[in-house]
Amino acid sequence: MKFRNAIIATGLSVAAVTPVASAGFSANYVGYGNFETHAVGYSSSLAWDSSVAITSFNLKLAEHKWDVGGSTVYTWCAQLYQGVTSGTTYVFNPVSLENAPQTPPAPGPMGIVKANVLRDAMSRWLESDSRVVASAGTGSAASAAFCALGWEIIHENFGSVDEATLVSRLSLTNGAFRAALTGESAKIYGSMVASLGQGGWRSIAAEGWDSPTAQDQFRVVPAPGAFALLGIAGGLAARRRR
């Protein structure tokens, strides 16, 4: 059975089984893939229902494109308070999704419930290469919508809740995380949120990329053993550089 079709029983906080890596790997940041720019704000101390005003900045809501051992890999940002620079090579440690992102800075590891909801979203809206499914809409708007959904799930302070309650508290207008989506991206975001948990909580093989100095990432694991393959690719690339 494919991971994309696996179902997590409703109400249970059960994380998908994810392989554990033994070593880090090198990835060169190529730059943004599909993206849109929208106003985004984050104040880590606020509760999920807070309406206190926060400062927003125009940010690119985007898929990220990497060269890992000569292969193109797509990921999504898991951490607003750090960044990556095009043309720069970073060393990441692959971790289970619930253990991403690192802290500091905020928000810290997302935990099992957030990871379960994010896996459900990834299963429904991402292809095996981590790009948004073509049926979601235009690439730029769909990528912005999924990026906003990922940031909201990872960064919001939902409290100790189950998956269904977490989804009921998703909002881009209140809470610690805010995003002013407009037009098609706002419509696609609404469709993504409405799909979560429908017919049961889906799962998919996924991983986080953690770094103490760079923006942490997450992605779909396209095939069993991808952790090991990334480690091998990173090691080969490092040996070529030496």
Keywords:
two-stranded antiparallel ribbon, 5 helices, 242 residues, disordered N terminus, 9 strands, alpha+beta, disordered C terminus
Task: Write a structural description.
- With 242 residues, this protein is α+β, with helices and mostly antiparallel strands.
- The protein has one domain (3-241).
- 28% of the residues lie in helices and 26% in strands.
- It has five helices and nine strands, in the order E-E-E-E-E-H-H-H-E-H-E-E-E-H.
- The protein has a six-stranded antiparallel beta barrel with strand order 2-3-4-9-8-5.
- Helix 1 packs antiparallel against helix 2 and helix 2 (139-155) crosses helix 4.
- The radius of gyration is 17 Å and the shape is globular.
Reading the helices and strands in chain order gives EEEEEHHHEHEEEH
Count of alpha/pi helices: 5
Major beta sheet, strand line-up: 2-3-4-9-8-5
Gyration radius, rounded? 17 Å
The fraction of residues in strands falls at: 25-35%
Please state the average pLDDT score.
88
Distance between the termini: 42 Å
Quick one: biggest sheet?
A: 6 strands, antiparallel, barrel
Let me know the number of strands: 9
Give the uncertain stretches in residue-range form.
Answer: 1-5, 8-22, 231-242
Tertiary shape: globular
Oligomer: single chain
Structural class by SSE content: alpha+beta
